[in-house]
């Protein structure tokens, strides 16, 4: 009887150690998956932002020359475009808390999204 108890406890210890190793491995896999998802979203957003920047840059140059032809002054044409961007900057500054909250919520949603494999 004593040998069966020792076998039981030694077998239980091995199974518990294996369970802990498997659990740590699962946590590492889940963290890697969440990190990969976050990096994919970040990369996609960066590429879209870069392309949008170039579109906006060339559109701004076009608008500056367009307004310059309307006003007859190169300075005035580009000043109108700068004024538009100053208004946009002011708007972004006033809504920065809402934008920050949206970004934070997106990151949290990605990090804590449940997969079909996740436990409840």
Distance between the termini: 40 Å
Global morphology: rod-shaped
What is the percent of helical residues?
over 70%
Q: What oligomeric state best describes the polypeptide chains here?
A: single chain
Uncertain stretches of 5 or more adjacent residues? none
Secondary structural class: mainly alpha
Largest sheet, in brief, is: none
Textual characterization of the structure:
By secondary structure, the protein is mainly α. Helices cover 89% and strands 0% of the residues. It contains three helices and no strands. The chain has helices at 2-71, 74-94, 96-111. α1 packs antiparallel against α2 (74-94). The longest helix is centred in the first third of the chain and has 70 residues, at 2-71. The radius of gyration is 29 Å and the shape is rod-shaped. The model has no long low-confidence stretch (mean pLDDT 89).
What are the key terms here?
single chain, 120 residues, mainly alpha
Could you give a quick summary of the protein structure above?
By secondary structure, this protein is mainly α. The chain contains 3 helices and no strands.
């Amino acid at each position: 009887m004593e040998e069966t108890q020792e076998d039981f406890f030694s077998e239980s210890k091995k199974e518990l150690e294996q369970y802990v190793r498997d659990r740590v491995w699962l946590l590492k896999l889940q963290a890697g998956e969440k990190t990969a998802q976050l990096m994919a979203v970040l990369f996609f957003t960066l590429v879209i932002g870069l392309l949008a920047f170039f579109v906006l840059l060339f559109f701004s140059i076009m608008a500056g020359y367009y307004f310059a032809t309307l006003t007859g002054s190169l300075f005035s044409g580009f000043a109108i475009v700068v004024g538009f961007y100053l208004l946009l900057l002011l708007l972004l500054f006033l809504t920065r808390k809402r934008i920050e909250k949206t970004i934070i919520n997106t990151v949290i949603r990605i990090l804590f999204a449940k997969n079909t494999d996740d436990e409840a």
